[in-house]
Write a structure and sequence with these properties.
This protein is of the alpha/beta class. Helices cover about 25% and strands about 20% of the residues. It has a five-stranded mixed β-sheet. A five-stranded mixed β-sheet has the order 5-6-7-8-9, with helices on one face. A hairpin with a 2-residue loop joins strand 6 and strand 7. It is globular, with a radius of gyration of 17 Å.
């Protein structure tokens, strides 16, 4: 699937998370202002209002927790870049025609073989780290890394730090212009080259990449 400015993006839907409304207050606000009895039903409705069955959508991680059944209700031709909470679950998508899964750092750019060779030289077997996932692609002369973890950001010692080091290295090795990510939910990205597309930041609706860039540009100049 080619990524274009009309590809939809979103992250961190966490379908089936038992404590979502307590953990992420923005969800509680949206839920309380709706007529739905279940937040996942609201989230699916907002997804399908935005995305048609023919549209393409890229989800940058933490897709679901317990409700695998809900994924068949989502419109679109879908790609998942594996997030930390998808490890051990994304295998359930292996028989689905609607989902493609990126479970490594994938290069869809010129000279990709040279970059893959350098990554192997630098990191060797560490590239098998299940949390080191990303998609690097050129869209309208903009080089984008889509990853779950934001580039250039850490919170102390974490079991994910090696994976994040690998992702960061790939970002700068390939001279990306922007990092579109999730993971941090409602919080602002630390780096000005990072765009957080967690569902809370998008009012729980997938947005087209062109709209994401417009919002990002307006934010930088505000």
């Amino acid at each position: 699937m080619d990524i274009t400015l009309d590809t939809y993006v979103i992250s961190d839907t966490h379908f089936g998370h038992k404590y979502a409304l307590k953990k992420w207050p923005a969800r509680s606000v949206a839920f309380n202002n709706s007529h739905y009895k279940d937040f996942d039903e609201l989230s699916v409705e907002l997804w399908n209002e935005s995305v048609s069955k023919e549209d393409k959508i890229l989800h940058v991680g933490d897709l679901f927790n317990d409700r695998h059944d809900i994924l068949s209700k989502l419109n679109g031709e879908k790609i998942l870049v594996v997030g930390n909470n998808d490890v051990g679950k994304y295998e359930l998508l292996s028989n689905s025609k609607d989902w493609k899964v990126i479970k490594k750092i994938k290069f869809k750019i010129k000279d990709k073989e040279l970059f893959k060779k350098e990554m192997k030289r630098k990191w060797g077997s560490e590239l098998k780290n299940p949390y080191a996932t990303a998609l690097i692609v050129d869209v309208n002369n903009i080089r984008i890394m889509f990853s779950h973890f934001p580039v250039g950001e850490r919170r102390g010692d974490s079991k994910y730090n090696m994976a994040r080091d690998i992702i960061d290295y790939a970002y700068f090795l390939t001279k990306c212009d922007v990092n579109i990510h999730g993971h941090i939910h409602s919080r602002d990205s630390i780096q000005d080259y990072c765009i957080n597309v967690s569902t809370e930041r998008l009012q729980f609706r997938p947005r087209k990449l062109r709209d994401i860039f417009t919002l990002y540009t307006n934010l930088l100049h505000s």
